[in-house]
Amino acid sequence: MFAPGQEQLSQEQIRAGEIEASQTIRMAISGGILLYLSPFAIDFVKKFL
């Protein structure tokens, strides 16, 4: 990564990597929240039916 002779990333590549990383973090947080809430949703549906 920091070895001499390697090419530098352009600003567009850095920005694309930042966007991808933030989307990955958002998806992981959203998935965690959905997994936490899923038992409550299942119980609600069972009681509703």
Automatic annotation (TrEMBL):
<keyword id="KW-1133">Transmembrane helix</keyword>
<comment type="similarity">
    <text>Belongs to the Tom5 family.</text>
</comment>
<dbReference type="Pfam" id="PF10642">
    <property type="entry name" value="Tom5"/>
</dbReference>
<keyword id="KW-1000">Mitochondrion outer membrane</keyword>
<dbReference type="GO" id="GO:0015031">
    <property type="term" value="P:protein transport"/>
</dbReference>
<protein>
    <recommendedName>
        <fullName>Mitochondrial outer membrane translocase complex, subunit Tom5</fullName>
    </recommendedName>
</protein>
<keyword id="KW-0653">Protein transport</keyword>
<dbReference type="GO" id="GO:0005741">
    <property type="term" value="C:mitochondrial outer membrane"/>
</dbReference>
<keyword id="KW-0813">Transport</keyword>
<dbReference type="GO" id="GO:0006626">
    <property type="term" value="P:protein targeting to mitochondrion"/>
</dbReference>
<dbReference type="InterPro" id="IPR019603">
    <property type="entry name" value="Tom5"/>
</dbReference>
<keyword id="KW-0812">Transmembrane</keyword>
<keyword id="KW-0472">Membrane</keyword>
<keyword id="KW-0496">Mitochondrion</keyword>
